[in-house]
Every structure is written in C-alpha cells, then in structure tokens.
UniProtKB/TrEMBL annotation, chain A:
Entry-linked SUPFAM superfamilies: Adenine nucleotide alpha hydrolases-like, DHS-like NAD/FAD-binding domain
The protein's name in its UniProt record: Electron transfer flavoprotein subunit alpha/FixB family protein
Entry keyword set: Electron transport, FAD, Flavoprotein, Transport
Keyword Oxidoreductase in record: no
Source organism of the structure: Streptomyces mesophilus
Biological classification of the source: Bacteria, Bacillati, Actinomycetota, Actinomycetes, Kitasatosporales
Residues binding FAD, per UniProt: 208, 233-234, 247-251, 264-271, 285
Ribosomal protein as UniProt keyword: no
UniProt family annotation: Belongs to the ETF alpha-subunit/FixB family.
Classification via InterPro entries: DHS-like_NAD/FAD-binding_dom, ETF_a/b_N, ETF_a/FixB, ETF_asu_C, ETF_asu_C_CS, Rossmann-like_a/b/a_fold
From TrEMBL, chain B:
Subunit structure: Heterodimer of an alpha and a beta subunit.
The organism of origin for this protein: Streptomyces mesophilus
SMART domains per the UniProt record, alphabetical: ETF
Any GO MF annotation of the entry: electron transfer activity
Protein name stated in the entry: Electron transfer flavoprotein subunit beta
Tagged with keyword Transport: yes
Presence of keyword Transport: yes
Task performed by this protein: The electron transfer flavoprotein serves as a specific electron acceptor for other dehydrogenases. It transfers the electrons to the main respiratory chain via ETF-ubiquinone oxidoreductase (ETF dehydrogenase).
Pfam families: ETF
Similarity field: Belongs to the ETF beta-subunit/FixA family.
GO annotation, cellular component aspect: cytosol
Location of the Electron transfer flavoprotein alpha/beta-subunit N-terminal domain: 24-217
Annotated keywords: Electron transport, Transport
Length: 320, 264
C-alpha cells in the first residue's frame, strides 16, 4: 500500500496532539510513516505506533537544535527520498509550514497550507481550507509533484489504530545551507499548566472590555474552571494586558475548539478570522450591537465583571 | 559599501471589505478596494529603522501584481523607501506561491541585495511560507518571524533577531545576505508624512515584465500553478443564537446553556 510521510511535532519525545490528528488523516490516504527528529526522537515511537504509524524514521544530531529550520528540511528530504511517499503531511505550526514549504521547493511539488480536512480523491488528496477570515471554505488539490500539505490543529479526531511502528534510523547528510542561521540561545516559554491554545477543546478569551492586565485573572479563573486555554484579542495584546503568544486572530493563533467563550471582545474581522470556525461560540459583551453577537450560539449582553465571576462560580458549584 | 535592502510587499484586498473569489476561483481583486498588506507595513518599518542605523543604505520596495499594486509601492515609498520595482505581466494572473516566489527571487537578484525583508504573511493568502521559500530559492540564510531585528556591520555584516515560537523564544544570528521576516510585534509602522507623500511621487518605480527576468509564461499564472482550487463556497451564516440581557442572572443562565451542551 502507498505510504504517507508524517512529520512529527514533539517535545523531547512527547508527541504533540496535532501529530496524532495527522495520523488519522494520513490513514485515509495510505500507510503512515512517521519522521521524528531531534532529542527524544526514538521515544515518540510508542505513541505513533498506537495511532497508526507503520514505521518511525528517527534521526538526532546537534544541528536540529542549534540551527533554524534547514537541518529539519534536509532530514525530511532524506526521508522523502527513502520512502517515495504519495503525500507529505506536516503540522501547521510556524516552523512546520516553513519546513514543508522548503521541502516542496526542493522536490518540485505544490504546497497547501493550513488544511482543516483531508480526503482521498481520484487525483490525489483533496484539502479543505478556510479563506478570507474563514468566511469561505475551499477545496484544493496539488497538481505538480508529491502533495505537501500542512494541517491545522483540531482538524481531525485522534484515533487509536495500532500498527507496527518499527523504529528505523534515518541517514541524514546536512546541506551547506543547514548551518546558515544559528540559534544563539533559547528561552523556553514558561508553562502556565493550561492547555496549548491551538489544541484546546475550550478557549476562554478576553478583549478590550477586560480593561487592564490585572483584570485578566477573572478570565483565567473561568478558563481554569473549564480546563480551558486562555486567549486574548489583538486590542488586549496591543495594550500589553496579555502575552502575544495568546493572541487569537489574523495575526495571532487561529483556533477551532469545541467551545469558544469571548469576553469583552467586539468581534472585529481581525479576531473573527482566528475563531469563527469554533463549534460552539459564546460571548459576553456590554454592547448589544457588537458584531460578535452575530456569531454566537449563546450571548449575554451585560457587564463581564458581573457575568463572568457568576459564571465561574456557577460552574464550580455544578461541578460540586 | 551601501547596505542594499529589498522589501517584498503585497497589494491585497482590504480585509475589512467584502472579499470574495472571482469566477476562476482566484482572489477577486477588481471588485474590492486594495491596499498595502498591513503586515508588510511592519517590514517597511523595520527596513527604515535598519537603514537609519546603517551608515549607508538603500531601500528598494518590490511587488508582483497588477497595475493597481502601484498603490502599495507608493505607500511604502511615502513611508520612506528609496525606490520601487513593480513586476507586472498579464501572464501572472492566478500565480501561486511557487510562481510568485520564483518571480520575486529573480527580481531580487536582478535588483541586487544584502538583506531581504518580508512581512510574516499576507492578509489575503495567509500562508506565511513565502520568506522561507525565498531563502531556499536564493540559497541564503532564513531568519524569519522576528519580533526584534537588527543588522551589525553593514553589507558584510550579520543580522540578529528574536523569534518567539510556541514553545520557546530564540535568539537567531546569520551572515548577510539573508532573508528576514518580521511579525506585527516588531514595532508599530509609521504613518507617511505629508512631505513623504510628496517626495514619493518623484521616486523611481522600475517596471519589469517576465521577459526581463527570463521567466517563461508557463512557469507562472493559473496554468503554471502547482495547486488547483476546485471549489470555493461561502461559509453558511451561523444560525442565530440565543441572546439574553443580564438582569443579574446572566452568568447562571450562561452556565445552564453550557451544561445543556455538556460542557460542564
């Protein structure tokens, strides 16, 4: 059966959820062969096998951490040459997209980024994408070379599908370009203990109406009562109330959770672009005319400083 | 030697307007107002700041696009860029990222460069991969998604910057020539002054066609694209939800809804 190359996003061997979702999609097209690089690469094999990887190609070298992007492109290209897959799937992280794009140039293939669904088709995989701030849905194909497709988090369910997951060492020889951009230092982001924004099932966001960095604690408390990630609108981030890493919108993260709760967010196009594919949308805003209310399944017109703490308390009470 | 900076910019349909697809499923650029992509303003701004710091620098702003794309170049020139290059050719209609990056790479090489600066993504296609592809095509270091950037040592020097990723913040460094992209966190873009707007009218805009870049028509355009859009459908409007006015019980009502939906 045809093989599909799946690039593994992992942290020291812990496979991130979007990669497991990618395996679900890969199995619709062929047999998934995973490529895991860097520190802990071999430790990914068990989780990958459980979700359908027939083989796990691994490589580790200092270059993967010490230089930007290109060493990983070299390795993925080596895997491509070794496997001759029918498609290459990569998680749509910032780095994932760059790796995929450079590989596509090298192997003379078209690229589709930020797919939200993938099906097998007569002329190769068909990718669904959202366009123009998610106001349109498109279906696209790659017409040249081996399809290279990056897929957004939350695009498919994680499914158990046990397979062999045989670990094989991948031979990589680095190109001259590999050492072009040095990573001089790396400061890990402090963990908040909350789910990753793009992967979370529930996202609770605050905007201009939160009116100050100190007030974000009421957004965080609501998030924690639901086991949710915290998001922020551009207005809140630009005002310095919350970190840019939590920004939801066109220039921040694009999220598609089961539940999105927008607090004090008007719903400008910039924000809608990042959240309107959420399954259920709820908003609290004191302005009844705010465009966010056009999107909601349930909306409360009111003061978030009254409504949100009451909601949090009610959730805690109901949970017992 | 003068530091030669090329800033790649895109003319895009206004994101606050009613954007849609044309009959051939390309982005409709005729029936909606266009402008310089907001995310490219950050690239122009960082170019201006780097040029200010350098002893001697020249900023060329480059675009590939239809006649109207001159508006984007004009805006960048009025912000302070020195000159512009506009690649315009009827055969370019429908070109995908692979074709566009090929045209840009050839135009950058023809112009001459030490540093290429791009925005983090376009506001219409939103792929965010063009800077990486340019680095691959030009075979120079990729120093992308920077929220801080600086150049030391002029044209023979190095570019340094901070890349804020999902799991870590990285300090990057590469020798010039290089391709850089900057995020919307890199610093507010300046507004053109009246003087800048007047001066821009006299700045040179070089027009190039595919022939000037030794690119064949079949390498670009809708036919030359390596991807095909088969359908584009407007997302159905979300069904109108329940909206209540808080009379003191708003939080509890919302909790009841969430419980009914099995979120609690």
């Amino acid at each position: 059966m045809a093989e599909v190359l799946v690039y593994v996003d992992h942290v020291d061997g812990a496979v991130r959820k979007p990669t497991l979702e990618l395996l679900t999609l890969a199995r619709r097209i062929g047999e998934p062969v995973a490529v895991a690089l860097g520190n802990g690469a071999a430790d990914t094999a068990a989780a990958l096998a459980e979700h359908g990887a027939t083989r796990v190609l691994t490589a580790d070298a200092p270059e993967f951490a010490d230089y930007l992007v290109v060493p990983k492109v070299d390795a993925l290209q080596a895997a491509y040459a070794a496997v001759s897959p029918v498609a290459v799937l990569v998680p749509s992280s910032a780095e994932g997209k760059e790796i995929a794009a450079r590989l596509a140039v090298r192997i003379k293939s078209g690229i589709i980024t930020d797919a939200v669904d993938l099906e097998a088709g007569d002329e190769g995989p068909v990718a669904t994408q959202s366009a123009f701030a998610a106001s349109f849905t498109t279906k696209s194909r790659i017409t040249q070379g081996t399809p290279v497709i990056t897929v957004k988090p939350n695009s498919a369910a994680v499914e158990a599908a046990p397979a062999a997951g045989a670990v094989e060492a991948l031979e990589v020889s680095f190109s001259a370009a590999a050492t072009g951009t040095k990573v001089v230092s790396r400061t890990p982001r402090e963990s908040t203990g909350r789910p990753e924004l793009t992967e979370a099932a529930i996202v609770v966001s605050g905007g201009r109406g939160v009116n100050g960095a100190e007030n974000f604690s009421i957004i965080e408390k609501l998030a924690d009562s639901l086991g949710a990630a915290v998001g922020a609108s551009r207005a809140a981030v630009d005002a310095g109330w919350y970190p840019h890493s939590n920004q939801v919108g066109q220039t921040g993260k694009s999220v598609s959770p089961q539940l999105y709760i927008a607090n004090g967010i008007s719903g400008a196009i910039q924000h809608r672009a990042g959240m309107q594919t959420s399954k259920t949308i709820v908003a609290v805003n004191k302005d009844a005319e705010a465009p966010i209310f056009d999107l909601v399944d349930y909306g409360v017109v009111g003061d978030l400083f009254e409504v949100v703490p009451q909601l949090t308390q009610e959730i805690e009470t109901r949970k017992g | 030697m003068s530091l030669r900076i090329v800033v790649c910019v895109k003319y895009v349909p206004d994101a606050t307007g009613d954007r849609h697809f044309a009959d051939d499923l390309t982005v409709d650029r005729d029936d909606v107002d266009g402008l310089l992509s907001e995310l490219d303003e950050y690239a122009v701004e960082q170019a201006l700041q780097i040029a200010d710091e350098a002893d001697d620098a020249e900023i060329t702003v480059l675009t590939v696009g239809p006649e109207d794309a001159k508006d984007a170049l004009r805006k960048a020139l009025s912000m302070g860029a020195d000159k512009a290059v506009h690649v315009e050719d009827d055969d370019l209609h429908g070109t995908d990222v692979m074709g566009t990056s090929l045209v840009l790479a050839k135009a950058i090489e023809k112009t001459g460069y030490d540093l290429v600066i791009c925005g983090m993504a376009s506001t219409d296609g939103t792929m965010g991969v063009l800077p990486a592809i340019l680095a691959e095509r030009l075979n120079v270091p990729q120093v992308t998604l920077l929220s801080e950037v600086s150049v030391e040592g002029g044209a023979e020097g190095t570019v340094k910057g901070r890349r804020d990723g999902d799991t870590a913040s990285e300090q990057l460094e590469a020798a010039l020539p290089a391709v850089v992209s900057v995020t919307d966190q890199s610093g507010e873009a300046r507004y053109p002054s009246f003087k800048g707007i007047m001066a821009a009218k006299k700045k040179p805009v070089e027009a190039l066609e595919l022939d000037d870049l030794d690119i064949d028509a079949d390498e670009v355009g809708l036919e030359g694209a390596w991807t095909a859009v088969d359908s584009a459908a407007e997302r159905p409007a979300r069904t109108a939800g329940t909206i209540v006015k808080d009379e003191g019980e708003g939080g509890k009502q919302l909790a009841a809804f969430l419980a009914e939906q099995k979120f609690i």
